[in-house]
Protein 1
Amino acid sequence: MDASSEKSIVSISSCNRYRIDTMNDSLKMLLEPWGGINYFVKSGQRVLIKPNLLCASSPEEAVTTHPVLIRAIADLVKKAGADVMIGDSPGSDDEETVYKRTGIEEVANETGARLVKFDSARGRKFYGIKARNLDLAAILDKVDVIINAAKLKTHPLTGITASVKNTYGCIVGKKKAKLHLENPLPLDFARLVIDIHMAVKPNLSILDAVIAMEGTGPRSGKARKANLLLASENGFALDNIAARLVGIKPDLVTTNYIAREMSYPGTKNIDILVKGLPLEECIIDSFDAGAAAGRNIPGLLANFPLSWFRGLRNNLRPFPVINKNSCIKCLKCLEGCPAQIIVRDSHGIPFIRRESCIRCYCCRELCPNGAVDL
Ligand code: SF4
Ligand code: SF4
C-alpha cells in the first residue's frame, strides 16, 4: 500500500450553473477518483439521499441543497440499479411545505425517488466522544447507503456548515432543539455534532458549493457564486478542505477542531489528498466567513482546561438581539427557541430574555427575515 492510499480523498470539480446537463458532467468528474457511483452503490440497494433542507426556502436563496444536484445524484443512483429515497428533518416548517418549496418534491416526481419523512426515531445509545441517546431517524436503519448532500454555508456556532453539520438533520424533529439546550457551549455542541455524524456514517458526502452562502448564514446570509462541487468518503476531510476554500483555518470550524483533537482520520492537512481541481485554484476570493472570521481567541482558550478560562471563553460569545425594524412577527424564533426564553413585547415583537439565553443561535437560524443580529 503506498502512502497516498492511506489518505482521505477529497475530490473537487467545477460546476458553473444549476443546469442538469452541466451538473451531470460535473458530478461524473467529481466521482472519477472512485471510478464512479458504482463504487458506493450496488444494484438492488436502498439508497437515502440526505440534503440540507433547513426550511421552506426557494433554491435561489442558497439556504438548501439545490434540487438540480439532488436530481443528478438520484439519476446516477437509479442508473446503478438502486432504489432511491430522499429525506431530511427540517429545522423549521413542515416537511410537505419544505419539500415543495425547495424543489425536492419535483425532483422526486421526475426521478421516481421516494420522499421519506424523518418522523420516527430509533432512539439508540451511541458511544462516541461520550455515550449518548440519539434520536436518529428510524429510516437510517432501513437503507444500505447514505449519501450526505450538503450545502456550503457559514454558521454562527460551528463556523461553517458543510458535510459534518448536515447530519444533525438526521435527529428527528424537536429533539434537535432539546440537544441544543443540553449542549449550549460551542465545543460541546461540536462534540455532539461529531457523534451524530459518526452514528449516521454517510458512505459518501457531496457538497453543493456552486452557489454557497457567506456572511450571516445558515439562513440569512448572502448567496455567493463559487462554481464548485466537492466529494469525499470522509466528512471531516471534506470540511477541512471546505474551510480552506472559504479562506479560514480548518480549526476555526469547531467540529474540525474537536475531531482533530480526537485524532480522527482525515482531520489533519497531511492526511488529505485533493483530487480533481487543485485546491489553490479554487479558493473563493474574499469570502465573508461571518462569525468564524473573527473566531480565534475562543479557539485558543479551548486549549485551557481551567474552568475560569471556560467561563471567559463563554463570556466572549455574543448574544442575539432582535432587530425590530426587520422583524415580521412570524414568531418562528419564539417557537424554535430550545430554552423557551423568547417572549413577546406589547407590540407583539419577540424579546429575548438575555439572562437565560444559552446562545445556541437557533433563533437566528430559524428567522426568515434576517432579523436576529448578534
Ligand atoms: S434566544 Fe436564541 S440564542 Fe438564546 S436560547 Fe433562544 S434560540 Fe438560543
Ligand atoms: S425575529 Fe425573525 S423569526 Fe422572530 S418573529 Fe421576527 S422575523 Fe420572525
Protein 2
Amino acid sequence: MANNLLKGKRGIISGALDENSIAWHVAERAHEEGATFTLTNAPIAMRMGKINELAEKTGSEIIPADATSVEELENLFSKSQEVLGGKIDFVLHSIGMSPNIRKGKSYGELNYDWYQKSIDVSALSFHKMMAVAEKQDAMNEWGSVVGLSYIAAQRTYPFYTDMADAKAVLESIARGYGYRLGKAKKIRVNTISQSPTKTTAGAGIGGFDSFFDFADKMSPLGNALAGDCANYCIFLFSDLSKMITMQNLFHDGGYSNTGISEEIIEQMGK
Ligand SMILES: NC(=O)c1ccc[n+]([C@@H]2O[C@H](COP(=O)([O-])OP(=O)(O)OC[C@H]3O[C@@H](n4cnc5c(N)ncnc54)[C@H](O)[C@@H]3O)[C@@H](O)[C@H]2O)c1
C-alpha cells in the first residue's frame, strides 16, 4: 500500500528497539513511502535491541543518542542533516521509560529521583529535541513532529503511576512548541494517544495483558495495532495533514469516547 506519501522527505525516527516497537513499524512504513531517515536510540538499547537489522532493511544510518542529553541530541540533528543531505521534514519521538513502573512502585510510594528520570526520559526529551531543532534551524517549513502518548494523561489508570504525569507534560509540550514552531516556520507538532500495544515498554506495566483485553473489548473497532499507529504517523508526516497542529489525537479504535460496551457488561454479569 505504498503511495509515495513521503517521497523526498527526510526524517529522524527514535525508539525502535525490536520488531514490536511502534517506531519499528513507523520506520518500515516511512521507507515504503519513499522517505529517507536516520534511526536513533539510547546507546544501551542498541546493544540489547535489533536496530541494526532495521537499519539494513531501510537503508538508514543509526545515530546513537540518549534523549536526555542535549549534547547528544545536538549531534543527532547535525549528523542527520549531514547524512540525509538537507534539513529534516519529520521527527518521531517514540520514547518512554519509568524506573518506578519497572520496580513496581505504587503512586503513593514513588521514588522521586526515579520520578524525575521518568519525566526527563519520557517528556523533557521531547522539549529538548525541539529546542535543538529550533536552535540549529534543522527543520524545513511545514515539517511535522509527532510524539506518542497514552490516555492516562487525561484519566487515571492506577498502574501507570508517574508515566501518567510524564504523558501530561508531553502533551503540554506539544502545544507549547506547536505554537512556537508553527509561528516561526509552519512546523506542526502533535501527539498520538495510542491504544495499549504489545511492546517492550507496554509489557513492563503491571496487569498489562488484562488491561489490553479490557481496552480491546471496550473499543468498537478493537485496539489499534502498532502497524495502524505507523499509518497514522505517516499521515501526520505527510502533506495531507498540513493544517493539523497542537493536537493530542486519539488513535484507539473509539476507546476514549466509549462509556461501556456490551462485551464488558456481559463479562461483568458472569
Ligand atoms: N505500548 C503501549 O501500550 C503504548 C501505548 C501508548 C503509548 N505508548 C508510547 O509509545 C512510545 C514507544 O513505546 P513502545 O510501546 O513502542 O515500546 P518500546 O519499548 O519498543 O519503545 C520505547 C523506546 O524508548 C527508548 N528509550 C528509553 N530510554 C531512552 C533514552 N534515554 N534515550 C533514547 N531512547 C530511550 C527505548 O530504548 C525504546 O526503544 C512510548 O512513548 C510509549 O509510552 C506505548
Protein 3
Amino acid sequence: MDSHSQSTVIEVPQGSPLGKLAAPVVWLQHCLVDLFKGTGQKTAVSAEVRSILEHCRVRTDISDHLLTLFGAALSVSPRLIVELGVRTGESTEVLAKVARLCASRLVSVDIDDCSGVCDLPGWLFVKGDDIDFAKTFPAWARARGLPDRIDFLFIDTSHLYDHTVAEILHWFPHLSPGAKVAFHDTNQRRVYFRRDGSVGLGWNNARGVVAALEDYFKVNFAERSDFTEQLPGWLIQHEACCSGFTVLTRIPSMEARR
Ligand SMILES: C[S@@+](CC[C@H](N)C(=O)[O-])C[C@H]1O[C@@H](n2cnc3c(N)ncnc32)[C@H](O)[C@@H]1O
C-alpha cells in the first residue's frame, strides 16, 4: 500500500450477529468511499500535523478525532496531561507529540499493561484502575515533582455509564482552572460513520458516556449531530462522527482571573 492510500482496521465485535460477513462488507464499502469521495485534510506544513494525518489514514474507531485531540491538548499549552485508557496507544502518540512541543509531562493509565506503547522520555505509565488511582493522584504527582493539577485530561476507557460518572466525580476535582477534558465514544453505536462516509463497527454502550455528561451538566445532548454549547463555566464542543468526541473547556470565572 502506498502512503497515500486509505486502509482500515476492521474490528468485528465479539458475538456480532453480522459475524464473519461483516469484515468483507465493510472493506467493500470502504473501497467505494475511496473511489468516490475525498477524505478531508491531506497535507500540512508542520511535521507533527503531517504525521497525525498520515496515521489517520488507517481508519480506526478514533482516527477522525486524532487531529482534534492534538489541537485541543496543544491549545492549553499543558504542563500536565493525563490520559485514561491507552490500549495500543493511538491517543498516547498524539498526546506525546503535544508533550514534546510544550515540554509537558504525560501520565497514562490503563488497567492492562500498556507500558510499551510510547517512547516519550519521562512518560509515566500507571497500570491500574483509574478510579483507584484518582483517589491518590495529587500525592502521587507531588511525590514525583509533577503538578497536582491537570491541564488536559483525556478519558477513553470502558465507555460505561457508572464508570464514566465515577471518572467525572474523581478526576474533575484535579483539573486546573483553564483545563480541557476530552471524551471519546460520546456517540457510540453498533455501526458508526466516519467523516468520509466510511462505516465502522462498534458496540452499543446505551449512551453511557454522553449520559454521564448529561447528568453532570443537567442538560440533554443531541449527540447524533455536531454541536457547540456554552454552559456555566464550560464550553462544550462535540463531533458526532466516528463514535463521537467531545471536548470540554473550563472557562475560569472572572474572580479566578483577577
Ligand atoms: C478504547 S481503549 C483506549 C484506546 C486508546 N485511547 C487509543 O486511542 O488507542 C480503552 C482502554 O481502557 C482501559 N480500561 C478500561 N477500564 C479501565 C479502568 N477502570 N481503568 C483503567 N483503564 C481501563 C482498557 O484496558 C483499554 O485499554
Protein 4
Amino acid sequence: MMAGRLAVLRAATQTFSSSHGSRAPVARSGSAFLPSSLAALPRASLRAVPCLLPQKPKATGRSRWVRCMATAAAAADPAELKAARKDIRELLRTTHCHPILVRLGWHDSGTYDKNIKEWPQRGGANGSLRFDVELKHGANAGLVNALKLIQPIKDKYRNISYADLFQLASATAIEEAGGPKIPMTYGRVDVTGPDQCPPEGKLPDAGPRSPADHLREVFYRMGFDDKEIVAISGAHTLGRSRPERSGWGKPETKYTKNGPGAPGGQSWTAEWLKFDNSYFKEIKEKRDQDLLVLPTDAALFEDPAFKAYAEKYTEDQEAFFEDYAEAHAKLSNLGAKFNPPEGFTLDG
Ligand code: HEM
C-alpha cells in the first residue's frame, strides 16, 4: 500500500505540474515505435491532410469528385475496412504499437459532450484528432506518432474516414493483444477542417484534486456510468506513461527498458502488451514500484461505488472482458455521425 502511494507521489512530482495534459512539446516524442523512415516524416505531411488526396486540375469534373470524396469519405466499403484491418494487424505485429493506437481512438472520441446536440460541435469520434491544432493539445502529446503509423494505411484506403480508421485500429489492437472482441459499428463521417476540432480540456486529468469526482464529471459528460468508467479504465492494462509526454511515470523501469518498441516509460502492468485483468490486480495491491498507479487509477479502489466493480474485475476476467467490450464499443461511437445513419458491421 505504502509503496504504491510512493509510486503515485513520485509520479506526481515528476517534471511537470500538470497531469494528463503535458507541457512537453509534441515534436519531442517523435520516435517512439517508429521505424526511422516514418519518424523522419515531415510534420507538414500531417498538417496538410486534404492535400494528400489526388490533385487534379480544378476545372475537370474529376477534381470535383475527388474533393467530394474528401468530405464524404465515410461512404466506406466494408471490404476496404477489412483489408485495412489486415494491414493494421501487420502493423501491430511488426511495431507493437497496440497501446498508442488504443489511446489514439480514445482521444478522438473522448471529447464528446452529450449536452451538445449538433455535430460536430458535440465532439467525439469524428477524425478531428488528425489536425495539428488538436494534436497539439497537451493531453495528446505523443499521438502524432500514432497518426504517422497509420497514415500509410489511410493513404491506401482513401474511402475510409479517419474516424473509422482510428476506431478500427484501436479495437483491432485490443483484440490482437488478447482482449475481447469489440462489437464495432463503422461508417463514421470525418470533420473536414481544423475549425471543427473541439476546444482543449475535454479529456480527463490524471491528477485532479478529487480524482473520483473528476472521473465522474468527465465521463458522465460523455454519457458513461460508474460501471463503464471502471471497465474502460482497464485499457491501462496496455501501454506506458512517459514523463516527456504526459509528465507522468518513470523514464524507464525493469519492464520497459528493453521495449518492445521504443524503450522507456512506466507501465501499469508487467506484460503491458497483453490485454487481461492484471491492471486491476496491480492497482489494488500496489506492491511493485516499477508499476504505475495514477491518482485516477487509485480512485477505482478508493471510491466505494467504483470499488465494487474494480473488485469484481480483479476476481473475474470474463466479467471484465464482457463489460470492457461493451464500454469500448460505446466509447468508439460517441458523437459519431454515420453514413449510412445506422452504420454497418464487418463480421457476422
Ligand atoms: C480515466 C481517465 C484516464 C486518464 C486520467 C488517463 C491518463 C493517461 C496518461 C497520463 C497516459 C500516459 C500518456 C503518455 O505519457 O504517453 C495514458 C496512457 C494511455 N491511456 Fe489513458 N487515461 C485515462 C483513460 C483511458 C481510457 C478510457 C483509455 C482507453 C479506452 C486509455 C488508454 C490509454 C493507453 C492504451 C495508454 C498507453 C499509451 C502508450 O503506451 O503509448 N486511457 N493515459
